[in-house]
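Action item from last meeting closed. Structure (265 res):
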């Protein structure tokens, strides 16, 4: 009796196993479909590369702005030769030749510049128009604007002196939107690094009404014999990172120079 009752249950179990085995290839195929659909999609790095190269595969490539910040200060730059007044017990009047330039800067994760005659370069120009106002004029293209002048200033006793500069910029951040001519797995529009991101930066230099760059200009005096002075003297004419205004410590004195004192070009 017991063995007879067990047999039907065993038969039904084997049938269930056969049905499960028969369905498993269908389930595997269903899982594979979405994986295959994304396999050929353009990655953010490919979008960036195609936009940078103005690829023929693209119908268009645009910079989409998400947020902006005016009066963003750029890097701190030494913009004159270093004048030496070391060993002297009195101040000295020295003539400084100051020269610097500004241009539009595009900052991506892997970094590149977009020429004005490309789709993306034109998009940067159009976005620049949006942020150009009667109050604040900005450089929208990749042309260079210069600031150059000579002036006499006072170098403190036993100090070295030079001019520092930090440009004022309008920092517009957003993302790239690329539209391809041919769909890739049914999709034509892709983003870099992602839709809604604010990690692509375009710095538009701000320009004064007289045509010169706007920014912060200051005369820096550094006590001779200090680590700060030795670091500057040892660097000769090479570029090096410099602290910002009033951020260089007790051995350094910064005096801001109003740009209104600088003659127009």
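Sequence:
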């Amino acid at each position: 009796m017991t063995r007879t009752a067990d047999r039907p249950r065993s038969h039904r179990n084997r049938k269930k196993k056969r049905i499960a085995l028969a369905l498993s290839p269908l389930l595997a195929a269903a899982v594979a479909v979405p994986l295959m659909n994304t396999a050929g999609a353009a990655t953010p790095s490919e979008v960036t590369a195609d936009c940078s190269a103005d690829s023929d595969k693209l119908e268009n490539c645009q910079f989409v702005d998400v947020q902006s910040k005016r009066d963003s200060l750029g890097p701190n730059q030494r913009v004159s030769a270093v004048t030496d007044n070391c060993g002297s017990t009195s101040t000295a009047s020295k003539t400084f030749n100051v020269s610097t330039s500004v241009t539009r800067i595009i900052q991506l994760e892997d970094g590149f510049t977009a020429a004005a005659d490309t789709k993306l370069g034109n998009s940067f120009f159009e976005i620049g128009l949006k942020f150009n106002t009667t109050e604040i004029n900005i450089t929208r293209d990749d042309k260079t604007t210069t600031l150059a002048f000579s002036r006499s200033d006072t170098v403190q006793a036993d100090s070295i002196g030079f001019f520092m500069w930090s440009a004022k910029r309008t920092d517009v951040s957003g993302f790239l939107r690329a539209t391809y001519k041919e769909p890739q797995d049914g999709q034509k529009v892709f983003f870099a690094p992602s839709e809604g991101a604010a990690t692509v930066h375009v710095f538009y230099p701000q320009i004064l009404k007289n045509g010169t760059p706007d920014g912060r200009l200051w005369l820096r005096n550094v006590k001779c014999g200090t680590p700060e002075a030795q670091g500057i003297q040892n660097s000769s004419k090479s570029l090096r990172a410099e602290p910002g205004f009033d951020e260089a410590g007790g051995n350094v004195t910064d005096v801001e120079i109003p740009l209104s004192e600088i003659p127009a070009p």
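Note appended to the action item: The two ends are 112 Å apart (CA to CA).
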